[in-house]
Write a structure and sequence with these properties.
By secondary structure, this protein is of the alpha/beta class. Helix content is about 40%, strand content about 15%. The protein contains ten helices and eight strands. An eight-stranded parallel beta barrel has the order 1-2-3-4-5-6-7-8, surrounded by five helices. Helix 6 links the parallel strand 4 and strand 5. It is globular and about 70 Å long. It starts with 5 loop residues before the first helix and ends in a 13-residue tail after the last helix. The structure holds 3-methyl-2-oxobutanoic acid (KIV).
């Protein structure tokens, strides 16, 4: 089984759509690994698993713990780890933390939110040998509400120049989150690296979703999510049946018992 490299991802631009999903554990990563080019250990873990109202309080240690678990299940996909809020405020801090993530998790790259404001940091990390994925448009570490970006001319101009700055600084791919279709299309044409959309239209070079939303394990269903299954209902049905069987003494049965 050949591991997907940064170069493979770069070469997919304008050729083959790039498939990405988040994962926070080995069990899920093992499944995603068979079908996706990139697995993102997203700081969305804070909201999805820890009930936080945003991603601001997710710590470096939390990301490292989940990334280690994901790495165990991912043999083929490229694994990218989100750097949490305020862990890449300066070149020195960003490098120290990115190096720690890569060294401790053996993952392939880190993702940073921002544009022109962090392009110097991105360039610094890349020059030090760290693979960096960018993230523009709606930046969950800096907002409290999920509102579409790029409606005004000013916003369009800023987000486009953010993406260009990241691409010029050596980011190998850029996530575009929640922007109007025309802007995602323009960015994808303007930058030389693949764009990965979430709520950013089919014009991106690839797509990413939070897996819990996609499989119906979470209740988060904005317009950009397509729910492929209803896993929450599957779990609930199983738990209800188990509880009923225990109460009615139908579990454990003959087959579940050790005899000697
Ligand atoms: O944290 C996350 O899951 C993300 C994706 C939604 C792109 O950044």
């Amino acid at each position: 089984m050949k591991k997907i490299s940064i170069q493979t991802i770069r070469e997919k631009k304008n050729k083959q759509p790039i498939t990405c999903l988040t994962s926070y554990s080995k069990t899920i990563a093992e499944i995603v690994d068979k079908y996706c080019d990139i697995i993102l250990v997203g700081d969305s873990v804070g909201m999805v698993l820890y009930g936080m109202k945003n991603t601001k309080k997710v710590t470096l240690n939390t990301m490292i713990a989940h990334a280690k678990s994901v790495r165990l299940g991912a043999k083929r996909s490229l694994v990218v780890v989100d750097m949490p809020f305020k862990t890449y405020n300066s070149k020195r801090v960003a490098y120290k933390n990115a190096k720690k993530i890569i060294k401790m998790t053996k993952c392939d790259a880190v993702k940073l939110e921002g544009g022109s404001n962090i392009s110097g940091i991105v360039r610094y990390l890349v020059n030090k040998g760290i693979n960096v994925m960018g993230h523009v448009g709606l930046l969950p570490q800096y907002v409290s509400s999920y509102k579409i970006r790029g409606k005004s001319i000013n916003q369009k101009k800023n987000i486009l120049s953010d993406a260009v700055a990241l691409s010029n600084s050596g980011a190998f791919a850029i996530v575009i989150e929640c922007v109007v279709e025309s802007l995602a299309k323009k960015i994808t044409h303007m930058v030389s690296v693949p764009t990965i959309g979430i709520g950013a239209s089919k014009h991106c070079d690839g797509q990413i979703l939070v897996i819990d939303d996609m499989i119906g394990l979470s209740d988060f269903r904005p317009r950009f999510v397509r729910q492929y299954s209803k896993v929450k209902k599957v779990i609930e049905d199983s738990v209800r049946s188990y509880s009923r069987d225990v109460k009615q003494k139908r579990f454990p049965s003959f087959h579940n018992v050790y005899r000697y």
